[in-house]
Design goal:
Number of strands: 13
Distance between the termini: 90 Å
Structural class: alpha/beta
Largest sheet: 6 strands, parallel
Radius of gyration: 36 Å
Strand content: 5-15%
Helix content: 40-55%
Length: about 600
């Protein structure tokens, strides 16, 4: 072996040794000692060869060239090893990040598995999909959310502006008699009933008595109009439209309205009746007896056909005349403050929702500024009345079927009778048609697929969820920043609303309507309809609402045992994106939900 080759091999051995003991240090003393050693080694081997002076000089020149090449090689090897070690360090860091994502995913999966082991599983058939969602959320915790997640298509949406407050007719004297209305349902159904009653009073040239609210065995709330809305404001605001009084005149209070056939129930009035029905059937009673009591009144007035001004009056009542009481506004402002935390200014809808209390929503002056929290509001329409009335199944087995059947027998006897006398669609058929409310685990899968990350702050609205906190386990596990009004408000702050479900619903209405984004799970619910409409009317095209097409979602969820997460994600996003486009009100549809129409809103085009 030549001396040059021998030197290279010796150098490689030394480098291998240093590599095993760690990275070579790149400092001047290290290189000086190495170079001295190499030159000494080279001269020693040259002298061993012996021979004449010419040979020595020639070899010395060759040796010097070899040494210079070897030094260069040594520099290169040191640089290469340093780069390799740095790359290894980066890979280690990446490995740590990945391993933390995996550990987070594993942790969530373990939690889901533990929760699913209960005596009665609350995840139904979605255990596999929830595990995939947990992994996707953990993997994507440092990824950006989709750009359109928190936005509406701004340009077409912002071209609409509110204008239902504009009034261009003479006041109605209410000379034909008095219209008494008792509205049924919860707070949201009652709100619709109030607006319909206002329109009827104008149509019939009647004086409206401030609407009453019927006590329900389901809602168990004795709240009346003045407990929820500002009564004086309501009366005064609508003075240019109709005459409103707080109660019947003394001479009419003593009348037995049933005996004189002045009581008309919801059974007597078809759902969504046209104005012609009231002019033909109700006006004669009003003219004869001077008073008519519509008992159990709700969604009993059609949206079309209705004259321009009557439709506008409907919008004026809903979006302008109904203001929550100061007590509700004050607590609602407190709720928004805790949801947003560090907001520097009120939200775009705060003035309409909490009135003069809007300033208390923002951070206190002098407090160090921090980024305000965006939050998503989620309305889970999954109370037992909704679940029972749907006739669907939600993975709870025989125990669930017995519970819901017992509830139906007490609260929906007509439905129970119908079940016994008529062949109704099976739960599977109802689900495939999109007629079942989304369960909490289906809602969380939808949010994860849309791209809401694990750090998303979520406000869950609704009354008592069927299945209790255990049913919310999937939501809580995958989205730890999840709150309800009961979490955010103390027991003392909620005490004035205890046992008043309609007033509590008003707080949910405020929390949902003011949210940066709002997701509904049942597009047919009154709260979701009213909230989404309010956000359209006052939102200026900046308040997105997620409206799932339950029929399309049902087809996707039915493949839960085989579908891959990426495919599931793509299909969910496509299904929801198609419901997010801006459209004017379809004929016959609710102006409360779709206020983009010439009667309610004006365009800047």
């Amino acid at each position: 072996m030549s001396s040059n080759h021998h030197l290279i091999l010796e150098s490689d051995k030394e480098h291998d040794s240093s590599s095993r003991h760690g990275s070579p240090r790149l400092d001047s003393s290290r290189f000086a000692s190495s170079n001295d050693h190499l030159f000494g080694l080279k001269l020693k081997k040259v002298k061993r060869k012996g021979g004449g002076r010419v040979w020595y000089q020639r070899k010395r020149v060759k040796s010097l060239v070899g040494v210079i090449g070897l030094v260069g090689f040594f520099f290169f090897v040191n640089w290469f090893m340093l780069s390799s070690l740095q790359d290894h360090g980066q890979r280690q860091k990446l490995s740590i990040v990945n391993s933390s994502s995996v550990s987070a995913s594993v942790s969530v999966k373990k939690e889901l598995k533990k929760l699913g082991k209960g005596k009665r599983s609350q995840f139904g058939v979605y255990g596999r999909m929830l595990a995939l969602a947990a992994h996707a959320l953990a993997e994507g915790q440092n990824k950006r959310e989709p750009k359109d997640l928190w936005h509406e298509p701004v340009v077409p949406a912002s071209s609409w502006r509110p204008c239902a407050d504009q009034c261009s007719w003479e006041p109605n004297g209410g000379n034909n008699g008095y219209l008494v209305v008792t509205a049924n349902g919860g707070m949201n159904q009652q709100r619709v009933a109030v607006c319909n009653a206002v329109v009827l009073a104008r149509l019939l040239n009647a004086t409206l008595v401030v609407p009453r609210f019927m006590y329900s065995s389901v809602w168990r709330d004795v709240s009346q109009f003045s407990d929820i809305y500002q009564e004086e404001y309501f009366i005064n605001y609508l003075t240019p439209d109709i005459r409103i009084v707080k109660e019947l005149p003394n001479e009419l209070q003593s009348l037995d309205l049933e005996a004189i056939h002045s009581v008309v129930t919801d059974v007597d009035i078809p759902k969504e009746s046209k104005p012609s029905f009231y002019l033909k059937n109700i006006l004669p009673i009003l003219l004869r007896n001077r008073v008519v009591h519509l008992l159990g009144f709700g969604n009993r007035l059609a949206f079309d056909p209705l004259t321009f001004q009557l439709q506008r009056l409907r919008c004026r009542c809903n979006f302008h005349a109904l203001q929550f009481t100061p007590k509700i506004q004050q607590t609602g402002a407190l709720l928004l403050q805790r949801l947003r935390k560090h907001a520097a200014q009120p939200g775009p809808l705060d003035n309409y929702l909490v009135g003069l209390h809007k300033d208390s929503v923002v951070k206190e002056k002098g407090v160090r500024s921090a980024k305000a929290s965006k939050y998503l509001a989620l309305h889970l329409r999954f109370e037992i009345d909704m679940v029972a009335h749907s006739l669907c199944e939600f993975g709870g087995g025989e125990q669930e079927r017995q519970e819901l059947e017992a509830f139906r027998e007490i609260h929906f006897p007509a439905l129970t009778l119908l079940q016994k006398t008529t062949k109704l669609p099976s739960p599977a058929e109802l689900r495939s048609e999109g007629l079942c409310p989304l369960a909490p685990e289906e809602a969380v899968l939808m949010l994860a697929a849309l791209g809401f990350n694990r750090k998303t702050h979520i406000f869950v609205a609704g009354a008592q969820i069927y299945g209790g906190t255990q049913r919310l386990a999937a939501l809580n596990t995958l989205y730890p920043y999840l709150v309800t009004k009961e979490n955010l408000l103390s027991a003392a702050e909620l005490e004035p609303f205890k046992n008043f479900s309609s007033q509590l619903a008003a707080l949910d209405f405020i929390g949902c309507t003011a949210a940066d984004a709002f997701a509904m799970t049942d597009s047919g619910s009154q709260l979701s309809s009213l909230v989404s409409g309010y956000r359209i009317y006052y939102g200026g095209g900046k308040m997105p609402t997620i409206r799932p097409n339950k029929r399309r979602l049902a087809a996707i969820f039915m493949k839960n045992s085989t579908i891959e997460w990426k495919v599931f994600e793509q299909r969910i996003r496509k299904a929801v994106r198609q419901t997010k486009h801006v459209q004017s009100r379809p004929k016959g549809r609710s102006v409360y939900r779709y206020p983009r129409c010439k009667e309610c809103m004006c365009t800047t085009d």
